[in-house]
Sequence to fold (191 residues):
Amino acid sequence: KGTSTANGEILYTFTFSEDVSGFTAADITVSAGTAGLFTQVSGSIYQLTVTPPANLAGNITVGVAAGVAIDAAANSNSIATNNVQAYDTEAPSAPVIAAPAASTNDNTVTLTLNAEAGSTVKVYANGVLLGSASFVSGTEYSFTTSALLDGAYSVTATATDAVGNVSAEAAPRAFIVDTVAPSGPAITSAA
Fold:
C-alpha cells in the first residue's frame, strides 16, 4: 500500500519469491488509472507505471491474479494482495483576492484572500513573487506587503494543495499606491 497521496505517475514494483516466466502487463489489473510502461527488471522483479486520472481524487487498485506466471518447475503463482494507492490530481480552485481598495496612501498593503483550506497561497505583484499569505481561519488568508514604491500594481495569487497541485492564478486585483500628499495650493489674485 502506498504511504502517501500521489499526484502524478506511480511506479509499481511486482516482486515474486523466485524467477518466473509468462508474466506480462496484461496480467495486471488496474482500476482508476492508465497503465503505462511495463518493464522486467530481473527474473523475479517487474515494474509498471500507472498514471492517475486527471483532475480527480480517489484510489487506484492494482492486483495480480493467481496462475499468470510460472517458475522453472511449472508451478503457478498465487494471487497477490491488491495494492491500494490514494491519488489527488485535482488542483484547488484559484484564490479570490477580496482586498485592497483601488487606491491607498499606505505603502504596506494588506490583502485578504480566500483559498482552499490547508493550501500554500503565493502572492504576486506585477508578475513578481511577493511571498506566501498567512492562514487566518477556514479558507481565509492574509498577506501584508513590504513597503511598496508609489505606483500601479496588479496582484494575483496561486494556491498549492498539500500534495503539490497548483491552482490557476486568481483574477488580478489592481490598486495604486500614492503616498505623496498634494502640495498646498498656489494662491493668486487678480486686481
